[in-house]
Amino acid sequence: MRASYFVLNRNQNKPVLLNNFMKHQNFRKEVQRAIIQAMLLTDGSVVSKRNQVAFANTSMVLINQFCNLVENVYGYKIRKLQNGKSAKQQVFIAQFKSKQICNDLLSDIQTYRTSPFKDESYPEIGLPKLWMQFNNE
Length: 137
Prior knowledge:
The protein is an alpha+beta fold. It contains four helices and six strands, in the order E-E-H-E-E-H-E-E-H-H. The strands form two sheets. A four-stranded antiparallel sheet has the order 3-4-6-5. It has a two-stranded antiparallel sheet with strand order 1-2. Mean pLDDT is 80; it is low at 1-11.
């Protein structure tokens, strides 16, 4: 007979099988990773040559959310934020260097560039197949 281990679900105050809990935790990390990728596709960059990840936004709330997501998913704490200006607006920038995180972020999205090239064509961005699975969970 196989032993079953339980953990307490904080939201519902009832026990949940440990292996179901672990699946949920892994799924949660994948969703958080997808949110990081979406944020970088809209207002960020990943530069593999410099092992650099940057997210810029006028909202400090979004900057803090990005920093928290990076810490939750990768265990990396972004310690310093920068200020900048864009079209006369204050912009906050969360920027850090990590070869491991860059490699992970580029493992299923080849480029985070969304601005046009000099010839006015746009880069082709393939979204991760995993994103489509979130709808089926």
